[in-house]
Specification:
Endochitinase, domain 2, 3-stranded antiparallel beta sheet, Glyco_hydro_19_cat
């Protein structure tokens, strides 16, 4: 806790009157909730004398309250109580870390060389950090959620293979859109009608398919993706935002979001457990692509997602041992079919 109170006072021409030439209070405080970095900034210059008196009293009272809270917080920490300081993603996931997870993305053989970068990811993530994206819980939980999210991104955009240089999990973000799609991915929808001649094939970090999905994601991001789905292949920040929106939002009624699953906010019902549906990385696979990869044993695509997840946990310093139970979904009942768009 650092609290700096700077008051500079000078006499004006009238006796008994004081003029603040500068009043500055900066607070950096620890907290155990996810709004752990609160900054209070008060600046006053050349105000009338009576306002200076009021401002001085306010500053003094605020300062005393904040200092007392600081002492209480530090006392709790010294007593051994849990004291967390949630970090922003940029604070624990550097550009070097991004390169470590996606080292081959800019090679000439990659189909999106030069497109994906750490800066655009951080800019996109900032939109969702207040909602808890990788800012929920302690630092380990934050890194686990990040590893889970990026594992899905890597699986969806990889061009790696089993004996690829640097291993099969080093080739994420090789693509930014589906190449040579054999369909326009257009289906009749009153709410999100297709624009004639536009293809709704997969684009982005966690590819969006079909007109109704472009419409839903676009509405949330306040972008007209129904008319301009190509933006997800030309704007990396927007492409990451679309992926994070998919992660943070429940895709269907009465289903949790991937974020809620990985942060422990979702509790399965009795019916869920009877269908082998439990919290864990496997449930996020079921949410995102369960109708293809879940419910029929060791699907190779499911295994690839899990393998990316375990690899990224290692690279982020969390370790595979902290992956949690139920990383796969081979035994889970499928949550939905592609024909269920409600």
């Amino acid at each position: 806790m650092r609290c700096l109170l700077k008051l500079q006072l000078s006499h004006d021409s009238a006796p008994q009157h004081f003029l603040f030439t500068e009043s500055l209070l900066i607070l950096e405080k620890n907290s155990t909730n996810q709004s752990s970095r609160n900054v209070l900034f008060i600046l006053a210059t050349k105000s009338p004398p009576f306002m200076m008196k009021i401002t001085g009293v306010i500053l003094l009272l605020v300062g005393l309250v904040l200092v007392s809270r600081a002492w209480a917080f530090n006392a709790n920490c010294k007593e051994g109580k849990k004291c967390e300081r949630n970090m922003t993603i940029a604070q624990f996931f550097s550009a070097e870390d991004f390169d470590t997870l996606f080292p081959q993305r800019n090679l000439p053989v990659a189909h999106a060389a030069g497109f994906w970068n750490h800066y655009d990811f951080i800019q996109a993530a900032a939109m969702f950090e207040p909602l808890g994206f990788c800012t929920t819980g302690d630092l380990m939980m934050q890194k686990i959620e990040l590893a889970a999210f990026l594992a899905h991104v890597a699986h969806e955009t990889t061009c790696g293979w089993s004996v690829a240089p640097k291993g099969p999990f080093a080739w994420g973000l090789c693509y930014k859109e589906e190449l040579s799609p054999d369909s326009l991915y257009c289906e009749s929808s009153d709410e999100y009608p297709c624009v004639p001649g536009i293809s709704y094939h997969g684009r982005g970090a966690m590819p969006v398919y079909w007109n109704y999905n472009y419409g839903k994601v676009g509405n949330y991001l306040k972008k007209d993706l129904l008319h301009r789905p190509d933006w997800l292949a030309t704007n990396a920040t927007l492409a990451f935002q679309a992926a994070i929106a998919t992660w943070m939002l429940p895709m269907r009624p009465k289903q949790p979001s991937c974020h809620d699953v990985m942060t422990g906010k979702w509790v399965p019902t009795k019916n869920d457990t009877l269908n082998s549906i439990y919290p864990g990385f496997g449930m996020t696979i079921n949410i995102l692509n369960g109708f293809v990869e879940c419910g029929h044993g060791d699907d190779i695509r499911m295994i690839d997602r899990v393998s990316h997840y375990l690899e990224f946990l290692e690279l982020l310093g969390v370790g595979r041992d902290n992956a949690g139970p139920y990383t796969g979904c081979g035994l889970q009942k499928v949550l939905y079919t592609p024909f269920d768009k409600s």
